[in-house]
Specification:
By secondary structure, the chain is an alpha+beta fold. Helices cover 20% and strands 35% of the residues.
């Protein structure tokens, strides 16, 4: 059956650049241009440009917005101020994860919530169900274009067309009063690659102008990057992906994201279940796994040890920069110690692997 796919404001540019277009959660997006490995290396060594305009943007405003967002998510929103962002899971009452999102505090009682594209409608409906009469929510996703510029040269290239002093923006902070390529923009030092870089929000109508200006400013040092390398980059840096490391059936504590769950703050949705889970001890947890045998594991494969199934892979594959094959796996708590040998079942065959710690790419983000 034919499905009418949604397109971002940059669709025609992707086609003109030779992007191989695929269906990604109902969006027609480029999976690669010159090749996943080439694009991956470009981001690690120079700079890559990503179209992430399919992401969802939801505004939360009104006299009750501060209290509402604090109640909605697991992290402590009171710890940030206007001009800062916060990563947080958002949970159901049973502790399962609705989504993970980035919270932008534009002003007191004024927020921009950036959510995963495939979850936008679900998230918006969930938020509306939780909101009181002192909060106004709007799904503004169609109004925004979003471009990520990532890599060691990202600041140097973006600065050529940006009137904000990027050196003054630390990691997980933003400025909303400046322009990029003459277009009003929100510029945040955030990203999903493990490298330093920025995400630029502009109006949907002006997204193409900003994209063109950044490619021109970067010259040979920049290239467009598709979904394929976006996934290898985030996996290699051990960044979670909703639907794999997180889901309605996986709590953020199980996903090793306890740092972003502030159990001591006032009640938030899922707090009771998560506190109970922490008190009882986790029965399973996400671990890093490195392959011993040759073979190519993928997500959602059984993991075995001591003759029994102990969990499953959530993400897996080659880490190109590290030149090794890794996996993330959700396994029984008895098998989470580094050095534990396990088997990942690939096409019915058990491939030897071991639980490790610190085996993934070290993030290169700039704190000051």
């Amino acid at each position: 059956m034919y499905v009418d796919l949604k397109r971002t404001p940059l669709y025609e540019r992707h086609v003109a650049l030779g992007g191989r277009m695929v269906d990604f959660g109902g969006w027609e997006l480029p999976v690669q241009y010159t090749g996943i490995l080439k694009e991956h290396e470009k981001v690690r060594t120079q700079c890559g440009l990503f179209d992430v305009s399919h992401m969802g943007e939801i505004t939360v405003q009104g006299p009750g917005a501060d209290a509402f967002v604090q109640h909605l998510v697991t992290n402590d929103v009171s710890a940030i101020h206007p001009g800062q962002t916060l990563y947080s899971p958002m949970c159901y009452p049973d502790g399962g994860t609705v989504d993970d999102l980035i919270i932008y505090q534009m002003a007191p009682n004024d927020y921009l919530l950036v959510v995963n594209a495939a979850n936008t409608d679900k998230d918006f409906a969930w938020m509306c169900e939780q909101a009181g009469t002192d909060v106004k929510l709007e799904n503004r996703s169609a109004d925004y274009g979003q471009i990520a510029i990532q890599g060691p040269m990202a600041q140097q290239i973006l600065q050529q067309v940006c009137d904000v002093n990027l050196e003054t923006i630390p990691f997980f902070a933003f400025q909303s009063g400046g322009q990029v390529a003459g277009c009003k923009a929100i510029v945040s030092r955030t990203g999903y690659t493990g490298e330093d870089g920025f995400e630029v929000y502009v109006s949907a109508e002006q997204t193409g102008l900003v994209w063109d200006a950044l490619l021109h400013a970067g010259g040979d040092a920049i290239c467009p990057v598709g979904l394929g390398a976006r996934d290898t980059l985030r996996f290699e840096a051990k960044l979670p992906l909703y639907g794999q490391e997180l889901s309605a059936d996986i709590t953020p504590l199980e996903a090793a994201l306890g740092f972003f769950v502030k159990l001591n703050k006032e009640d938030f949705i899922g707090a009771q279940a998560l506190r109970a889970q922490k008190a009882q001890g986790l029965s399973r947890k996400l671990v890093e796994i490195e392959m011993i045998d040759r073979g190519m594991p993928r997500a959602h494969l059984p993991i075995r040890a001591a003759g029994q199934e102990i969990g499953h892979t959530t993400s897996a594959g080659v880490a190109p920069t590290l030149k090794k094959t890794l996996a993330l796996g959700l396994v029984d708590a008895a098998y989470i110690q580094p050095g534990t040998e396990v088997e990942i079942m690939v096409r019915g065959k058990g491939l030897k692997a071991r639980v490790v710690k610190g085996g993934f790419y070290k993030k290169q983000t700039k704190s000051k």
